[in-house]
Specification:
By secondary structure, this protein is mostly helical. It has one domain. It has a three-stranded mixed beta sheet with strand order 1-3-2.
Length: about 180
């Protein structure tokens, strides 16, 4: 893994906020899609921050992106053993820059909102509601759908400052959320 010069990483404090944000986002998305604990557990995804990303996982201007990986478990090579996993790649520098430029936005609701958005993508890809490989036109339509779902889910999340975050993304048309 080679990092770009000047790459910015989350502080220990920001990683603690992320640790609080992820379960809120997971629970909210699972509730929206009415997924049981076992159903949620079958989703294969992980969340990584800039320090743990490979070069191709850095997305520049976006706050996050979802990447798809296809794997075969070691010692198995049958088609039935092939699996798909998703990686939510948080872009620390873009997130921190936005928070610095918009001081009225709090870290926790901002991270919750970003994670909800990316988890909605993961659920939609996993349930084959949207193909991962799609034309740019289809991707734009998908982003609009995911943004609408994200906002509906976020409207039910009782985290202080979520209304400001929702307004921020509404005013900016959801821009910067991801580049799936």
């Amino acid at each position: 893994m080679k990092l770009c010069e000047g790459t910015v990483f989350f502080s220990g404090e920001m990683l603690e906020v992320l640790d609080m944000a992820l379960p809120v986002a997971e629970e909210s998305v699972a509730g929206f899609y009415k997924m049981s604990t076992s159903g949620w557990g079958r989703l294969r995804y992980d969340v990584k921050t800039a320090k743990d990303l490979f070069d191709h996982e850095h997305a520049g201007h976006a706050y996050a992106q979802v990447l798809r990986y296809v794997g075969i478990p070691w010692q198995r090579s049958t088609q039935a053993s092939v699996f798909t996993a998703y990686r939510i790649c948080l872009q620390d520098g873009s997130i921190l820059r936005c928070l610095r430029e918009n001081r009225q936005i709090s870290e926790l609701p901002f991270l919750v909102y970003i994670l909800v958005h990316e988890l909605v993508h993961v659920v939609r890809f996993s349930r084959h509601l949207q193909l991962f490989e799609a034309s740019s036109e289809v991707r734009m339509q998908e982003e609009k759908k995911v943004q609408e779902v994200t906002d509906r889910i976020a409207s039910e999340i009782m985290v202080s400052g979520m209304d400001l975050v929702r307004s921020f993304f509404y005013d900016n048309g959801g821009s910067g959320l991801d580049v799936f």
